[in-house]
């Protein structure tokens, strides 16, 4: 067994353990941290497959942005840790069956031989950029699937905003349409009032008597 196969088994074992802890941890913050660990191990597997761009993208996008956002959201929601396990034991047999199926597929692939899966790099393509080749495939051969995936993600984003947006009654929002249609007569009202009378000047002698 060479070093590449050893690293594959190491990353795969840690990733399986982290994924198992994601669904079994009772603390949601711990579950998010285990998910970050699983993503980091998946990035290591991408690096072993010589897909450096995908591995670095997984680290920068998911670990650097998405998972940190998830962690802040989970900590701000103040989720109660007491109570039921969200039906974990009811779905446990199905989860074990799917996990066993995936494990059997991985074992079948590894039984054939992991080193044989990685083809030797030819001398004429050794200097070809992995990122450039991936970009050329995405925006030439797979252009329509990429656009369809982008539209699906955009629709999902609008759907999530529409489902979670609620009109709050305690906010003092201003309608721009009402501001545009406003008239001066609606804002300024002139009230007629009688003119005020000036007070009579006080005599000097009366002022001195008042002081005395």
Describe the fold and architecture.
This protein has 212 residues and is mainly α. It has 9 helices and no strands. α1 packs antiparallel against α2 and α2 packs antiparallel against α3. The protein is elongated and about 115 Å long.
Helix and strand layout, with pairings?
Layout: H1 3-24, H2 28-48, H3 52-77, H4 92-112, H5 130-141, H6 143-164, H7 176-180, H8 184-187, H9 204-211
What is the level 1 CATH name of the domain at 1-79 and 92-119?
Mainly Alpha
What is Rg?
Answer: 35 Å
On the 0 to 100 scale, the average pLDDT is 76
CATH superfamily of the domain at 1-79 and 92-119: NADH-ubiquinone/plastoquinone oxidoreductase chain 6, subunit NuoJ
Tell me the major beta sheet.
none
Distance between the first and last residues' Cα: 116 Å
As an assembly, this protein is single chain
Which structural class should the secondary elements be placed in? Answer: mainly alpha
- The fraction of residues assigned to DSSP E strands is under 5%
Query: How helix-rich are the residues, as a percent range?
Result: 55-70%
Find the CATH topology of the domain at 1-79 and 92-119: Four Helix Bundle (Hemerythrin (Met), subunit A)
Compressed to H and E, one letter per element, the order equals HHHHHHHHH
What is the β-strand count?
A: 0
- The rough form would be described as elongated
Low-confidence segments, ≥5 residues, pLDDT <50? none
What's the number of helices?
A: 9
Identify the CATH architecture of the domain at 1-79 and 92-119.
Up-down Bundle
């Amino acid at each position: 067994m060479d070093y590449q196969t050893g690293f594959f088994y190491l990353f795969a074992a840690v990733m399986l353990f982290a994924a198992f802890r994601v669904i079994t941890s009772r603390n949601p913050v711990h579950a998010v941290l285990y998910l970050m660990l699983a993503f980091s191990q998946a990035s290591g597997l991408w690096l072993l497959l010589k897909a450096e761009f995908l591995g670095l993208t997984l680290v920068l996008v998911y670990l650097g942005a998405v998972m940190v956002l998830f962690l802040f959201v989970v900590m701000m929601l103040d989720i109660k840790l007491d109570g039921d396990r969200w039906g974990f034991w009811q779905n446990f047999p199905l989860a074990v069956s799917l996990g066993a199926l995936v494990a059997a597929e991985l074992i079948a692939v590894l039984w054939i031989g992991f080193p044989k899966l990685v083809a030797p790099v030819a001398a004429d393509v050794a200097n070809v950029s992995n990122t450039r080749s991936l970009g050329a495939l995405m925006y030439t051969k797979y252009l329509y699937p990429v656009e369809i995936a982008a539209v699906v993600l955009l629709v999902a984003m609008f759907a999530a905003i529409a489902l979670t947006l609620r009109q709050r009654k305690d906010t003092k929002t201003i309608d721009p349409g009402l501001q545009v249609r406003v008239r001066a007569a609606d804002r300024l009202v002139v009230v007629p009032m009688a003119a005020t009378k000036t007070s009579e000047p006080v005599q000097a002698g009366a002022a001195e008597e008042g002081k005395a």
